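Need a sequence for this fold. Nothing fancy.
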């Protein structure tokens, strides 16, 4: 091998190692920042969580590969528990409804009605395409100054960080988590670690939600529904 090729090989290895170090550093710093803002604002015991007028339930797909998505089930259980413990008066269900046959908010609404939550206490945000959109829209579209976020702990951490940036006073109720084994556990937590990097960058570069629109304050005489 020529001296020139060996030199370029060393440059490549050094460059690759530096890139890995930068990525690891970015992941570590971003995750530490997000977790710092969430510290002391998350609750697992419904008896300890303070009252907020609105519980913001973050959406997910109800069915995965012909099986019930337990993330969805546990979020609905947690939201109903909050409501019946009188820790929230209304539930804002925020999720994806970008195509006609896929409607996360409506699926959540039906699941909560099945659990006994009255339809009059339920509001739908059909443009909560991702956590970022859900949090910003709760503040700017649904006119809330404070909310209780309902999702799994790792998800709630991101939500609280976004809320802090937009002046939304958010606490969180952690729904039950689950894992299907070590491989899935590692995959999910790696994805979440990268999601925390993305949210830090989104806020750094002033990312905006896909849609805002008219103010629909809660409560209103007509609870909003997906078209």
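Here you go.
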């Amino acid at each position: 091998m020529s001296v020139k090729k060996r030199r370029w090989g060393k440059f490549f290895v050094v460059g690759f190692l530096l890139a890995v170090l930068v990525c690891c550093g970015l992941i570590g710093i971003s995750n530490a920042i997000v977790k710092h803002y969430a510290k002391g604002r998350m609750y697992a015991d419904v008896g300890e969580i303070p009252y907020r007028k609105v519980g913001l339930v973050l959406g997910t797909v109800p069915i995965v590969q012909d099986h019930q998505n337990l993330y969805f089930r546990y979020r609905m259980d947690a939201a109903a528990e909050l409501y019946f413990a009188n820790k929230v008066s209304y539930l804002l269900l925020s999720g994806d409804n970008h195509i006609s046959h896929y409607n996360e908010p409506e699926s959540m609404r039906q699941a909560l009605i099945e659990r006994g939550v009255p339809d009059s206490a339920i509001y739908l945000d059909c443009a909560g395409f991702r956590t970022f959109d859900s949090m910003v829209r709760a503040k700017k579209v649904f006119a809330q100054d404070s909310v209780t976020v309902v999702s799994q702990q790792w998800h709630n951490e991101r939500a609280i960080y976004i809320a802090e940036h937009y002046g939304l006073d958010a606490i969180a109720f952690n729904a039950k988590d689950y894992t299907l084994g070590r491989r899935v556990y590692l995959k999910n937590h790696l994805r979440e670690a990268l999601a925390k990097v993305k949210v830090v960058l989104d806020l750094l570069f002033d990312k905006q939600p896909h849609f805002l629109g008219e103010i629909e304050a809660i409560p209103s005489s007509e609870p909003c529904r997906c078209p």
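For context: The first helix runs from residue 3 to 38.
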